[in-house]
Amino acid sequence: MSLFIIYSLLPLVWLFINSTKTQADLISTFGLWFSGDFVFFENVAQTLTYDNGIFVRWLGNTLLYVVLGAGGATLLATLGGYGLAKYNFPGKKAIFAVILGAVAVPGTALAVPTFLMFSQLGLTNTIWAIIIPSLISPFGLYLIWVYAADSVPTEILEAARVDGASELRTFFTISIRLLAPGIVTVALFAIVATWNNYFLPLIMLSEPNLFPLTIGLQQWNLQGTGVGADPIFNLVLTGSLLTIVPIVVAFLLLQRFWQSGLSAGGVKQ
């Protein structure tokens, strides 16, 4: 456990320590301890204002992709997983097999075919080239399917139907409350996957104003190599530190729902 904690926290400690240094101190001092001038707040200010505040634009792009992409993926996974768990229809087993197969296919394997298809449709270098692929989450759908099968008793749904409630009213007033921990879990997975998405934006986007943070920071990093290099590694590290803050906050805020879902699943018969 101690080794795991060290392995998890050491990169974050290194990132914070080095985000407090100037570009010169970053190269010339030991990486795991403070040295030279403490310029953390100057680095943050410079990161947010460098190149006319392009970092803020990349942050806004990333939030847009997360809200529409991860939010849409969670909604579609919830509706699809609930439908597959609580309704019987022809071809249900075939759909289950397709979803299991899709879970095993890595996203990077589909990136190039997706790029070729979007290129034919004229959608490359647009926000839709990132948002539309992010809407598909086979693992999220499978997770909601399994969770709904156990957490939403069929007897409750039948009782609601006997009382005259429509399927939509039953879903929004009863089922979605019982599914809340599962929905939050799927949302967290989708948020992290979209926030850290790198390969898909790399091949889909060429306009810097559309870049997410992952691609934008890599562009800054590349400034430090080649002829006429202009290294700004101190800003790259400070930007990387700022990038992980929203994800940490999201986990802390939603931790209560996630833990309650795991606890509820642990006592089910």
TrEMBL record:
Family: Belongs to the binding-protein-dependent transport system permease family.
Keywords for the protein's UniProt record, in alphabetical order: Cell membrane, Membrane, Transmembrane, Transmembrane helix, Transport
Name this polypeptide is given: Carbohydrate ABC transporter permease
Top-rank lineage group of the source organism: Bacteria
UniProt domain ABC transmembrane type-1: residue ranges: 59-254
An annotated GO BP: transmembrane transport
Record organism: Agromyces atrinae
Annotated TM spans: 62-82, 94-115, 127-149, 170-195, 232-254
